[in-house]
Amino acid sequence: MKKVQQHEMVCPAEELLKALSGKWKPQLFKLALEGPLRFNALLRQVEGANKQSLATSLKELVEEGYLEKVVIRLKPLHIEYSLSEKGKLLIPVFKQLETLY
Question: Which helix (H) or strand (E) holds 78?
Fold first, then answer.
């Protein structure tokens, strides 16, 4: 556990669950396991997703260090999201959780 203030301790598992909770984050993480993600493809794959909520979830996953954002400077210019090293460390955790469900 990590110490936040003088007497308050934070559970790492709780922090991870908070970081990966959100409207589309679990789905995005699972799709990233299969390979790089492109925004427009995600709009088609994630049923019910809209541009704003998807963009917000991707941005938060990048900020939290679970995804990497790569700008591909070919014509047409596009952006891909893939699992970062930190994100790859969570693969065994997710596989273990899948066996429980």
Answer: strand 78-83
Contacts of 83 (CB under 8 A, 6+ apart): 29, 32, 33, 66, 67, 68, 91
| Rounded Cα distance, 55 and 67, in Å | 13
User: CA-to-CA distance for 11 and 42, rounded, in angstroms?
Assistant: 32
Cβ atoms within 10 A of the Cβ of 84, count? 18
Per domain, the residue ranges of the chain are: 2-100
Q: CA 2 to CA 9: how far, in whole Å? A: 6
Question: Whole-prediction pTM value?
Answer: 0.80
Question: Tell me, what DSSP letter sits at residue 66?
Answer: S
CATH code 3.40.50.1000 for 2-100: no
> How does pLDDT run across 30-75, given as a tens digit for each residue?
899 999 999 999 999 998 899 999 999 999 999 999 999 999 888 8
